[in-house]
């Protein structure tokens, strides 16, 4: 079920009503009905769409609450300074789960997300469970039907479980099994968060991955080269971040809190190798769970990641 954006989420400190250099995002955001959006001849600006769904988390036996994530992130983002000085920023609202099957909600979200991807230079998809990634893939493939897609996931988990239905732990297996013109790179894998069968599947499917403990002190030249080569080898990059990759000291409000997780600045450093590429059509950030957040710490962290990712 799709609902348009809610202006009452977008509030913040008012420094000026006339000087754009003092504006914050709540002063420049606009709202549109994505279901009625016509295709633009020239993509521009930024679109934001929320995936207010945690059904996939429940199916994956995780702790629920991530469906409240998109609104919490938007509220935290609203008060940050608009350093782009009034470039187009559109909140398209959220998609909610009201279908019998999760896959139908993913398809609904994909149809709408594809419109944003086609109309904007950047599209941010805010979760919600990491089943958002399969919906993001469907949207990407709709916009780019023949191009090779490189999927980059900053995550503690492979999320390649073999299940009979979509869950927050199956997205990337679904993508790889359905589409031979895709490849998968995972950054931040936790050795204690994945079974041997998932490592075996990674070997079978030639999934590239980097362990979290290889990223704790710095991002080495070897890893930087791996990322840049992966971006270079694909026509389109689908970029996604699962917030459970970040240590719970910094991100307590997630579906599965991390032990020995990454530092936020490491995630930023990795993203700097990905975001600037024009091949990046969309960015999704998943598993922000306000139910378990402390002082809005995780919501603010996601908001600041989006803020840094703006081109």
TrEMBL record:
Protein's GO biological process: L-histidine catabolic process to glutamate and formamide; putrescine biosynthetic process from arginine, via agmatine
Keyword Coiled coil: no
Coiled coil: none
TM region positions: none
Pathway field: Amino-acid degradation; L-histidine degradation into L-glutamate; L-glutamate from N-formimidoyl-L-glutamate (hydrolase route): step 1/1
Keyword presence, Phosphoprotein: no
Catalysed reactions, as listed in the record: N-formimidoyl-L-glutamate + H2O = formamide + L-glutamate
E.C. no: 3.5.3.8
Pfam families, alphabetized: Arginase
Gene3D superfamilies from the UniProt entry: Ureohydrolase domain (3.40.800.10)
Keywords: Histidine metabolism, Hydrolase, Manganese, Metal-binding
Enzyme class, broadest EC rank: hydrolase
PROSITE patterns, per database record: ARGINASE_2 (PS51409)
Amino-acid positions noted as binding Mn(2+) 2 in the UniProt annotation, renumbered to this chain: 155, 157, 242, 244
Entry cofactors: Mn(2+)
Source taxon at top rank: Bacteria
Residues at which Mn(2+) 1 binds: 130, 155, 157, 159, 242, 244
InterPro entries: HutG, Ureohydrolase, Ureohydrolase_dom_sf
GO molecular function, one term: formimidoylglutamase activity
Cofactor note: Binds 2 manganese ions per subunit.
Function of the molecule: Catalyzes the conversion of N-formimidoyl-L-glutamate to L-glutamate and formamide.
Family, similarity comment: Belongs to the arginase family.
NCBIfam families given in the database record: hutG
Protein name: Formimidoylglutamase
């Amino acid at each position: 079920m799709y609902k348009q954006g809610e202006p009452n989420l977008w509030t913040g400190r008012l420094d000026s009503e006339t000087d754009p250099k003092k504006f914050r995002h709540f002063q420049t955001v606009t709202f549109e009905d994505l279901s009625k959006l016509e295709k633009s001849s020239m993509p521009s600006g930024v679109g934001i769409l929320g995936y207010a769904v945690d059904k996939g988390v429940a199916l994956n036996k995780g702790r629920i609450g991530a469906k409240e994530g998109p609104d919490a992130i938007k509220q935290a983002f609203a008060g940050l300074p608009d350093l782009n000085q009034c470039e187009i920023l559109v909140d398209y609202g959220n998609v909610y789960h009201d279908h019998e099957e999760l896959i139908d909600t993913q398809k609904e979200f994909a149809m709408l997300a594809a419109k944003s991807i086609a109309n904007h230079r950047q599209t941010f998809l805010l979760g919600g469970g990491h089943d958002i990634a399969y919906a993001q893939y469907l949207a990407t493939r709709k916009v780019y039907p023949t191009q090779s897609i490189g999927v980059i996931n900053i995550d503690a988990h492979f999320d390649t479980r073999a299940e009979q239905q979509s869950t927050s732990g199956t997205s990337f297996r679904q993508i790889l099994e359905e589409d031979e013109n895709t490849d998968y790179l995972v950054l931040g894998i936790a050795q204690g968060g994945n079974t041997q069968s998932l490592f075996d599947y990674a070997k079978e499917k030639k999934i590239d991955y980097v362990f979290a403990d290889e990223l704790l002190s710095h991002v080495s030249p070897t890893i930087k080269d791996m990322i840049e080569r992966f971006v270079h080898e694909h026509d389109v990059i689908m970029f996604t971040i699962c917030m459970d990759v970040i240590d719970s000291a910094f991100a307590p409000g997630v579906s599965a809190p991390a032990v020995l997780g990454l530092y936020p600045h490491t995630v930023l450093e990795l993203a700097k190798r990905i975001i600037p590429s024009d091949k990046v059509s969309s960015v999704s950030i998943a598993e922000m769970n306000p139910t378990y957040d402390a002082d809005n710490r995780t919501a603010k962290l996601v908001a600041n990641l989006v803020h840094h990712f703006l081109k």
